[in-house]
Each structure stands twice: as structure tokens, then as C-alpha cells.
From TrEMBL:
It comes from Candidatus Erwinia haradaeae. GO terms for molecular function: cardiolipin synthase activity. Its main location: membrane. The gene is clsA. This is Cardiolipin synthase A. InterPro entries: Cardiolipin_synthase, CL_synthase_A, CLS_N, PLD-like_dom, PLipase_D/transphosphatidylase. GO terms for cellular component: plasma membrane. It is an enzyme of class 2 (transferase). Its EC number is 2.7.8.-. CDD domains: PLDc_EcCLS_like_1, PLDc_EcCLS_like_2. It catalyses: 2 a 1,2-diacyl-sn-glycero-3-phospho-(1'-sn-glycerol) = a cardiolipin + glycerol.
Length: 486
């Protein structure tokens, strides 16, 4: 019996070190960033058992075998679909501005999606206005409604949206709703999913979370897009989840969430529709393609016509697309660069690009919320302040609530708005979407929004910053250690 237990002990020890050796080899073989690799190695060797569990569940971008197979089948088909979509030549601009041209070329070459003209575009800065407009459009829908959100939290005007959606489904509108399992956990515990399904709405819980799935799919890979598509003609996207700010996360005492949304009319809805189709296929295995735009009906050119490019990221889409696009936009800046983000944990490449822009003489401003809903992110982001401030970047802390809008404005000409935070999760992991607009008038509109944010913010003074207490510096460096994993 003693020999048996001795053998078992040695087998467990051998198995333990074998697993650590295998994980170490995977970390070294996979071409990940040096800070990320070092962080994982330190976690695994300092906290071996917890490190192994953490790496197996969070260490690699694994969508799950079934979804991964669907994603591999989906993208080649989508690339062909986008290519055929480009056949009506008057939907596509012949020339972009000098500032926007590199970014448009990158996106067209890497993801096969070109910028589309003939769109009307409206910025909506009030959550109340967004919800009212959405309720109106849902009630007027005649053919189809597709929605995808990270968070749908019942309460207030969010319930009015749900009632409008149910009413539309009952009068024959084909409705599909894709909600992230983790973000919308409260929604799936209410009566709303059953009410919607009974009305004929296809409600799908994206990337379900459970202990049984933890070793078969990465649990922190989330469906973070926010999109609404109506009748293949009207589209919404931006930073806002389907929530009423009066009822959302009141207990964390950061004030109301401040979001930025875009409402569009035109052929851009078709481009966004094929992205939604890809998300739906990855999750359900069903391929439901949007109708291609009727060139005679959908194309119109007015004084305020906008050329819009859509960038999609996530498993199944071109790798690192969002990160490369943001880098390209930052390097394109010549005079002024303004960034708003709720979570500032940039990659080393993006951090250096922003600092280099400032060194080149570009007027660089970053607007972040003073109070954040994530303690980890709040302290980790502060570790980047010194390098940014020393390069001449102005950092504003918004005091009017939790600034949740995500935008980049380059020289008041090139605008990026959408769902992407400047953190590792958005840049490398989640399903995200960003709009790129090459239009000076729209750039001026976005600049006014950002200036309004600045008017409600405090500017960090570098002299005061360098005099902060040492315990704060220690906390910043401690949380910075985990920044590649946030």
C-alpha cells in the first residue's frame, strides 16, 4: 500500500510539472506581447495551481470548437459577399481625404469592407434621446429588426423598447435579439425572454457562461457589440447598452453613464447587417443574410451625405483589426487628436504612438471619467499617466458622470466612434464594432461633443501628478502588472 501511495504521489508531481511545462511552452511559442507573456509566466510560477486554472480559462483566445468551426466557414463567405456588394459603383467614394486614406486602404485590404457613401448620419449624445428615437423606429418597422447588445437591463425606457419590439413582432415583423450571457445576466433572469419568444422574437443568449464550459471556451470572451438594424435601412451603433441610465448601476455611485450613439440611414445598414449575420451564424449555426441594397432606392446623395466605413473585430474576423486601425488613425494625425474612453489601458504600441504624436507637435487630449466602475482598471490606467503627461498629452478627468463614450477625432476630419475601449479586452479579444467617418462637418460635430466633455472635466497637472503619494504609486504599479490581462 505504501508503494501504491508513493507511486501516486510521484505521478501527481510529474503530472503537475508536466502541465506547467506544457503551458510554459505554449506561452513561449505563441507570439504574444512580452509583457503579457512575462505576466502569465510569473502568475503560473508564483501561484502555480491558480495560475494553471487562470491560464486554461483565460490565457488563450479560444471560442470553443463548434463556434470556431462556424467562424472559419463564415469569413471566406462574407469576404465574397462584400466583394459582390461593391458592384454598384456609385455606393463607393472615388477618393478619401489624405488623413483618412491610409485607414480606409488598410480596412479594405484586410477585411474586404470599403467605405460606403449615400448615408445620413446623426450623433445622439443623450441616452434619453437615443431610447426615444429607437422606440419610434422599432414601432415603425415593416420588415425586420435585428439587435445585439452586451447589456440589456430591464427598467425604465428599456422596458418601453421591449414592449415596442414585442408589438412589432406580433404584427409580423421578423425580430432577432442577440444578447451577451454575462452582460445581460439580469435580463435572462426576468420574464422578458419568455415574453419575447412567445411573441415570435428569436432571442439568443450569446456565449453562455457556466462552470461546465470554463475549460472548453474562454469565459471572458464577450459579445460587446451594440447594434440595431431596422428594415435593412436604419442602423444604430455606439457605446450605449440597452439600459435606462436612471436605473443602471446606481449602487456604484459614479453618476449616470454618458454615452454616444450614431443613428444612420442608408446602405451602411447592409454592411452592418452582414456583420450581424456573422455573429448570428457563429452563435446559432444558422446563416441568414441581409438583402443587398436596392441601388435605385437606397442610394441618395444630399448635401450632408456621409461616407462611412465599418470595422468589425472578434474571433472569425481579421486578427488585430481594431488595434491596427487605431494605430493608423493616431499616426495620421497632423494637428489635433482627441480621444474619449472609459477604460485607458493601451498596448505598448498604442501608448508609444500617442506619445509620438504629441512629440511630433500634435495637440493630443485624452478624456476619461474621474470615477470608474472598475477598481482594477482605475488603478491600472493611472500607471500610464506619467509617460503620457511627460510627452505633452493632456489628460482630462470627466466629472459629470461615468463617461462611457468611445471616440477618436483626428484633425476634425477623421472620426472613429463605436464600442471599443482602449484596453486589452477590446483591442484583442471581444466582438467589437467601430464606425469610421471621413467628413469634416461630422468631425466638427464630434469636436463640439468632446469640447462639452472637456468643459465638465478637470485637467491633470503634471506638477501635482509627480508629487502624488508613494502608496498610490505602489498601487498603480501593482495593478499595472495585471494590465495585459484586463
Amino acid at each position: 500500500m505504501e508503494t501504491f501511495f508513493t507511486t501516486i504521489s510521484w505521478l501527481l508531481i510529474f503530472g503537475y510539472w508536466f502541465v506547467i511545462a506544457v503551458i510554459t511552452c505554449r506561452i513561449l511559442i505563441k507570439r504574444r506581447s512580452v509583457p503579457s507573456a512575462i505576466t502569465w509566466l510569473l502568475i503560473i510560477y508564483i501561484l502555480p495551481l491558480l495560475g494553471i486554472i487562470a491560464y486554461l480559462s483565460l490565457g488563450e483566445l479560444y471560442l470553443g470548437q463548434c463556434r470556431a468551426q462556424r467562424a472559419r466557414r463564415m469569413w471566406p463567405f462574407m469576404a465574397v459577399w462584400f466583394k459582390t456588394l461593391q458592384s454598384p459603383p456609385n455606393l463607393y467614394p472615388t477618393k478619401n481625404s489624405d488623413i483618412a486614406q491610409p485607414l480606409f486602404q488598410l480596412c479594405e485590404n484586410r477585411q474586404g469592407i470599403a467605405g460606403v457613401k449615400g448615408n445620413q448620419l446623426q450623433l445622439i449624445t443623450s441616452s434619453d434621446d437615443t431610447l426615444r428615437a429607437l422606440i419610434h423606429d422599432v414601432r415603425k418597422a415593416s420588415h425586420n429588426i435585428e439587435m445585439v447588445f452586451y447589456i440589456w437591463q430591464p427598467g425604465g425606457q428599456a422596458d418601453e423598447v421591449a414592449e415596442a419590439l414585442i408589438s412589432s413582432a406580433r404584427r409580423g415583423v421578423y425580430c432577432r435579439l442577440l444578447l451577451d450571457s454575462a452582460g445581460s445576466v439580469e435580463f435572462f433572469r426576468t420574464v422578458w425572454p419568455n415574453r419575447m419568444r412567445n411573441a415570435g422574437i428569436d432571442v439568443v443568449e450569446a456565449l453562455p457562461v457556466s462552470l461546465l464550459r470554463i475549460f472548453f471556451r474562454r469565459m471572458d470572451l464577450r459579445q460587446h457589440r451594440k447594434m440595431v438594424l431596422i428594415d435593412n435601412y436604419i442602423a444604430y451603433t455606439g457605446s450605449m447598452n440597452l439600459v435606462d441610465p436612471l436605473f443602471f448601476k446606481k449602487h456604484i455611485n459614479v453618476g449616470q453613464w454618458i454615452d454616444l450613439m450614431a443613428r444612420m440611414e442608408g446602405p451602411i445598414a447592409t454592411t452592418m447587417g452582414i456583420i450581424y449575420s456573422g455573429d448570428w451564424e457563429i452563435e446559432t449555426g444558422k446563416r441568414i443574410l441581409p438583402l443587398k441594397p436596392d441601388n435605385n432606392v437606397m442610394f441618395f446623395e444630399k448635401k450632408n451625405d456621409h461616407t462611412i466605413l465599418v470595422i468589425a473585430s472578434g474571433p472569425g474576423f481579421p486578427e488585430n483589426m481594431i488595434h491596427q486601425a487605431i494605430l493608423t488613425a493616431v499616426f495620421s494625425a497632423r494637428r489635433k487628436l482627441i480621444i474619449t474612453t472609459p477604460y485607458l489601458i493601451p498596448s505598448d504600441d498604442l501608448l508609444h504612438a500617442i506619445c509620438i504624436a504629441s512629440y511630433r507637435g500634435v495637440d493630443v487630449s485624452i478624456i476619461i471619467p474621474l470615477h470608474n466602475d472598475s477598481l482594477l482598471v482605475r488603478w491600472a490606467s493611472r500607471a500610464f499617466f506619467s509617460e503620457l503627461l511627460e510627452s505633452g498629452v493632456k489628460i482630462y478627468q470627466f466629472e459629470g458622470g461615468l463617461l462611457h463614450s468611445k471616440s477618436i477625432l483626428v484633425d476634425e476630419q477623421l472620426s472613429l466612434i463605436g464600442t471599443v475601449n482602449l484596453d486589452m479586452r477590446s483591442l484583442w479579444l471581444n466582438f467589437e464594432i467601430t464606425l469610421v467617418i471621413d467628413n469634416h462637418q461630422f468631425g466638427k460635430d464630434l469636436a463640439r461633443v468632446q469640447e462639452n466633455y472637456i468643459s465638465q472635466s478637470r485637467l491633470i497637472d503634471i506638477n501635482c501628478w509627480v508629487q502624488r503619494s508613494y502608496w498610490k504609486r505602489i498601487l498603480e504599479r501593482l495593478f499595472y502588472f495585471f494590465s495585459p490581462l484586463l
